[in-house]
Structure formats: C-alpha cells, structure tokens
Amino acid sequence: QTFAKYLEKYPEGPRAKDARFQMAHALYGMNAFDQANQQFLTYMDKYRDPEDLVAVTPYFVSSLIEMDKPALEIDAMTHGLPPTEIYGSVMWENAAELYNNQDYENAQQQFAIYLSKLPLYENSSKALFYRAESLYLTENWESAEKAYNSYLKNSHTNEGKNRTVAQFRQAISVHQQLNLVDAVKLYDAFLSTHPESEWAADAKENLML
What we know:
0% strand, mainly alpha
C-alpha cells in the first residue's frame, strides 16, 4: 500500500520507478501472481532499458509459470524480452514432454522455438537432436535430413550414441528421398565410422538395395 500511495501522489516522482518494481515484487512475494503479473507488465511497458528488463523478466516469467500458463502463451508474452534460465527450462520441459508423449509434430515445433530463442543454452545440442528425431519419426524426410546435418555440425563428438543415431538416420532420410548417390555416400561414411554399431548390418543391407 505504501508504494501504491506514493505512485498515486507522485506517478512520475524520482522514486516512481523503484516503487513500481517493489510493488510488483511484493505481490509476487505474497503469491498474488496474477496481480504481480499485471504490475510487471506495467513496469516493462514503461521502462524498456535493457537493465530494467533483465531485472524484472525472471519474476515475470515465474509469475506466468505459477499461473499455469501454457508454454506457447509464455513464449508469446515474453517475445522481445531477454531470455532467462527459467524460461529455457519451461520451454525445454514442454518440448520434452511432447516428445515423450509421441506428439512429434508439436514437439519439433517446440524444439525449434527453443533453439530460436536460446541457441546457446545447455540443452541446445539435445534440442537439435530431438527435433531431428521428431521430424524423422513423422517421416518428414527432407527436413529430418537437414536437422540431422545441423545436429552433427553443431554437437560435440563426445555425444556418442546420439551422433551415431543421427548419422545413420540422416542416411535413411536421404535414402527415403530416393537420392541414392548421396545415400550410398552416407551409408559408407557411417560404416567407416561405426563398423561395430548395432545398425551396421542395416546400413550394409540398405547399400545392397
């Protein structure tokens, strides 16, 4: 109430900015997330400097999570705001849940959103892989080929099994597009790199088709 009274009397006063932030933060601390969310929105609408947005965005995102807003709505409401660790966690968990529920079409879209917003976060390599997997499992062969290629180019060589899967399924994706010359090259490269792989026999069989 003290902050609200100050703002009512001095809406543009020297402490108005701090009062608006503290009022929103106090509501957040009282678990009044809906009211806090509205105050954070008001604050961000009025103060757009990067330092201001960085300070308030984590609380704003947290309030949306506490209000059980779906991931796509959170993504829309945080458009243009600095990415935060908690935002990254929400988007990753949502995409992973869709994938685990075999909703591969929506999963690949969510992994794509994650990568566009947070390309350098800790799960970015996994997101590249599981987006490719989602496309493969929906038989979107051309997009899967490109997605596996992106993963192989940007992932670490210590991601053993995922890279093995990606290399093999990239070859299959090319094969399914009837690009036989490139498919043969990819199968040969796979067998050269992974001669003892559990998929080596399948790669050899596909070479004979």
